[in-house]
Write a structure and sequence with these properties.
2 domains, Dihydrodipicolinate Reductase, domain 2, globular, 10 helices, 6-stranded parallel sheet, about 35% helix, alpha/beta, about 25% strand, Rossmann fold, 9-stranded mixed sheet
């Protein structure tokens, strides 16, 4: 059994909570190196990883360039702030390494297209970390849609509304993150719903971004803590905290999106998806199918949960690395999602609908 040698670029929350445990669960994977400018903090994380898993301690480098030049790697996970994604992915592809790239793939459309071109040229796998596609309940929804049980899906709604859930750290600094909840959690809601609809071609986008609450100080509120140094208390807050969009597709269907880090309204923190078709409808959280039978309205609740989505994501990435098969969330789809995200922000800034 060939061992896949993996490096992690950016050892923050998502790397520690999702990527590392999922790689460690595989006997055919060796996590050989970490790259992060906060060497002291990451060295402690490397020692903890070795102690907890019984695996060799990963080497720690202060930069991705140093790690790629020093190690013989098969693949990397890139788990860094959004605006660094494309630069680091290009470096990894130039080094002949397969890439699992955290969402969003890019923050600018031209950069996303450059990455598409580089992947085509390199022949390497680049998979975008759209983790909600790898949920068990979402997989069941996809089965219903592809089997034709909903008929033509003509309308979809998706949302993640946090009442107070602004993450600490670089997320609120637009120069580093590229945007607020739209690029943080909205990308998940948009991607998985568009994918369930069959990835229809976009016709036009109307968006609205707003910072309505900002960095308010409330007691007894817990949220994502910053792992990296700098902006630990969101002293820099230059992003929106609410975003909405209305997207028209070339096939006549439409999609409505709402996401927030902070809003004065009911909290709906889990990903919500509603699909409405001519033959049936489907909702996520809870998973439910709506239709008619024998002249009456019916609803059924498939018996399936979320499942180990991150493990399924990592397993799928490694399968693609080993076989050369295209990933479910590939680079071209990543570019198309970035196109929608960029258009939503542009529509809000310009106060008009953006036509593709």
């Amino acid at each position: 059994m060939k061992t896949t040698r993996v490096g992690i670029i950016g050892v923050g929350s998502i790397a520690l909570a999702a990527h590392l445990p999922s790689y460690a669960a595989r006997q055919d994977v060796e996590v050989v190196a970490f790259a992060d400018p906060e060497v002291e903090r990451v060295s402690a994380a490397a020692a903890a990883f070795a102690k907890e898993t019984g695996r060799p301690r990963p080497c720690v480098y202060g930069s991705a360039e140093e790690m790629l030049a020093s190690e013989s790697l098969d693949a990397v996970s890139i788990c860094t702030p959004n605006t660094s994604h494309v630069h680091l992915a290009l470096k990894a592809l130039d080094a002949g390494v397969h890439v699992l790239l955290e969402k969003p793939m890019a923050t600018q459309l031209d950069q996303a297209q450059a990455l598409v071109d580089k992947v085509t040229e390199s022949g390497k796998v680049l998979m975008v970390g759209m983790s909600h596609r790898y949920r068990d309940d979402v997989a069941v929804m996809k089965r219903y849609v592809e089997a034709g049980d909903l008929g033509q899906v003509y309308y979809a709604k998706t949302r993640i509304l946090r009442r107070r859930g602004t993450p600490k750290g670089w997320f609120t600094d637009k120069a580093v993150s590229g945007g607020g909840p739209l690029l943080d959690i909205g990308v998940h809601a948009l991607d998985v719903t568009w994918w369930l609809m069959g990835k229809p071609e976009v016709k036009s986008v109307s968006g609205f971004l707003y910072q309505g609450i900002g960095n308010d100080k409330l007691d007894f509120i817990q949220t994502w803590k910053a792992k990296a140094q700098g902006n630990e208390n969101n002293e820099i807050y230059t992003t929106e905290d609410f975003a909405s969009a209305f997207i028209r597709f070339a096939n006549g269907s439409v999609l409505q999106l709402e996401v927030s880090w902070a809003i004065n309204g009911p909290e709906d923190d889990a990903l919500q998806v509603d699909l409405f078709g001519a033959q049936g409808g489907m909702s996520l959280h809870p998973l439910r199918f709506y239709s008619t039978a024998h002249g009456v309205l019916t609803s059924t609740t498939p018996s399936v949960g979320m499942g180990p989505l991150y493990q399924r994501e990592i397993d799928h990435f490694l399968e693609c690395v080993h076989t050369g098969a295209p990933p479910c969330s590939d680079v071209a789809q990543g570019r198309d999602v970035v196109h929608m995200l960029v258009a939503i922000a542009a529509s809000s800034e310009q106060g008009r609908e953006i036509t593709f």
